[in-house]
Hints:
- The protein is 69% helix and 0% strand.
- It is mainly α.
- The chain starts with a helix and ends in a 6-residue tail after the last helix.
Amino acid sequence: MGGLLTVRPYLRGTGNTFFRDTGYADQPPHGKQKPQHEARKEAGDADKSAMRWGVYYVPIGTVVWGYGDLILKALWVCTN
C-alpha cells in the first residue's frame, strides 16, 4: 500500500504527456470537472499527502511483514 501511495502521480497519468498537458490527469475521478488551476493545486496537495503517508507505510509494513510473528509473541497474543 505504501508503494502505491508513493507512485500516486504516475497512477493518475502525469507520466503521459497528453494527460499532463491537457489537465486530464489533475481532474477528480468522479463528479464535475474543476478549472484546471484549481484541479492542479488540489491534485498536487493530494499527491504530497499520499507521498507522506506512503513513506511511513513502507517501513512499517516491512517490519510487520518480516517480524509480525515476533511482535505478536511479544504482546502475548500468539503463544506458538
